[in-house]
Amino acid sequence: MPKLLFVVSAADHWTLQDGTRHPTGFWAEELVEPYSVFDEAGFDITLATPGGRTPVVDAASLEPDAAGGEDRVAALKQSLEDLRPVLEGAVVLGEQSADDYDLLFVPGGHGPMEDLAVDERFGELVRHFVEADKVVAMVCHAPAALLPAFGSGGRWLFEGYRLTAFTNLEEAQAGLADKAPWLLQDRLREAGAIFTSAEAWQPNVEVDRRLYTGQNPASSRPLAERVVADLATR
Known about the structure:
Elements: E1 3-7, E2 13-15, E3 21-23, H1 28-40, E4 44-49, H2 64-67, H3 70-82, H4 84-88, E5 91-92, E6 103-106, H5 111-114, H6 120-131, E7 135-139, E8 162-163, H7 168-173, H8 184-191, E9 194-195, E10 205-208, E11 211-214, H9 220-232
Parallel strand pairs: 1-4, 1-6, 4-5, 6-7, 7-11, 8-9
Antiparallel strand pairs: 2-3, 10-11
């Protein structure tokens, strides 16, 4: 069975442009849906966080308007409760090696913008996955975690790759674009990515070589399903 390193941000806030801390964490749907897909497919999943700290859910992702209604909130909360032992048992990210896994997945929320996006050691881990021709998959804000990944020549590892992530428009509609220290779509383009997007809030998955990215929360399950399907045909 494929061995998956499921990396979750350990941040509980996102530092805004004015220095204030916006409460955040992982986005519930973006963790629950892919984890369920990979688990049902029989993947051997190891959940890791920076420092092995228990990750926290972004409370906004459990609001009815964001989650899709009260019933959906209840289902997500139950899933997170079921996953409590997994979350509390997170292993130390810095102790993991690409040699021990077949693929890497990172869910979003603004958390990765705070920690993984500036984690040079994690960038090296991503490089090792890529150099070993292993799948790297990230959804929504999680592609921020691609930014510290550089090749041996010092060039950004994903220069020229087609990828997607949470768009400037979606950030604006979510109400945080004018407060953000930087916008993910802009930063990825500046780094050299070929940024693609679909209509705001609609599912969108982009695949280039072994990099799999999803645009927004609605892309979480389709992204994981695409990864599972493609691995089954290799």
